[in-house]
Amino acid sequence: MVNYTNRVITAIECCLKNEINWPNRLEQTRIASVFAVGGFPRCIGLVDGTTIRLSQHPAEDGETYFDRKGDYSINAQIMSDDRKRIIYFFAGMPGSCHDVTCLRQSSLWKRVHSQQQHLLFDRGQYLLGDSGYTSGERLVAAFRNAGGDKDKTDFNTCIAHVRIANEHCIGILKSRWHSLKEVWTQLKNRAENQYLVRWVRCCILLHNFLNRRKDDWTEADGPIEVDVESEVQIPAPLTPPLDEHAMIARGCRRRLEVQSECLAYMRNVNGTLAFQ
């Protein structure tokens, strides 16, 4: 059984290897035009984290896999576009790790904070994330605490309306492939962690393949379970970041720019959001 499973995984990886790819300039323009309707004309993707539950306590450092929901799990960072196509993922870190920590371990993060970022983003482009992330030049996150501030509250509402596409994407992914709801195996070592990440990658490859063939999920296929809260590799030790305080300051300025642009577009003459 193990040999057959390995052959299927290898076949999917070989045949569908191009199904997970970062959008090119033409596709980025199309995505941004769609998100512009929601007030984010330079957004080219959405990011969120989810956990993949493990049925058993991992043999190595098992306590680190115990997440806030009381389960053993691994974390998966999912980036998607407006069509619920997954454009990048990073998985394999213990479920107890914060989304920001996991994202900073990815090769995407390292490229964004290097001289290669122009290969991924055009000028002014960014991703949107929830309040669990820290805003940066290329990632705009919702405010963690609006504190009764109307501008912050309205901005968070605008982000939530756009980000629902990512939550639905993750929900459809797990509804299509029930193995991602709970993995019935014990992770005994690093190799088995790598194998699990390959499994996740195959599910994402098939998800994108079906999306490209216009195989839309319908109510007849079952409910979409939304979790409210690419690459195959085991994370290496995090490299020291650039000046952390400078990065946070730039991120705050960037978010204020996007917030101003968004609210100016989305508010009616009476000061309420267009969709309220």
Task: Characterize the structure shown.
- The chain has about 280 residues and is α/β, with parallel strands linked by helices.
- It contains seven helices and six strands; from the N terminus they run ααβββααββαβαα.
- Strands 1, 2, 3, 4, 5 and 6 form a six-stranded mixed beta sheet that branches.
- β2 (about 70-80) and β3 form a beta hairpin.
Rg value: 19 Å
Low-confidence stretches: 223-240
- Report the helical percentage: 40-55%
Q: What structural class do the secondary elements suggest? A: alpha/beta
Q: Into which percentage range does the β-strand content fall?
A: 5-15%
Order of helices and strands: HHEEEHHEEHEHH
Shape category: globular
Q: What's the pLDDT, averaged over the residues?
A: 88
Biggest sheet architecture: 6 strands, mixed
Tally of strands: 6
Q: Give the distance, in angstroms, between the N- and C-terminal Cα atoms.
A: 54 Å
Number of discrete helical segments: 7
Cofactor: a divalent metal cation
Main location: nucleus
InterPro entries: HARBI1-like (IPR045249), HARBI1_dom (IPR027806)
GO molecular function, one term: hydrolase activity
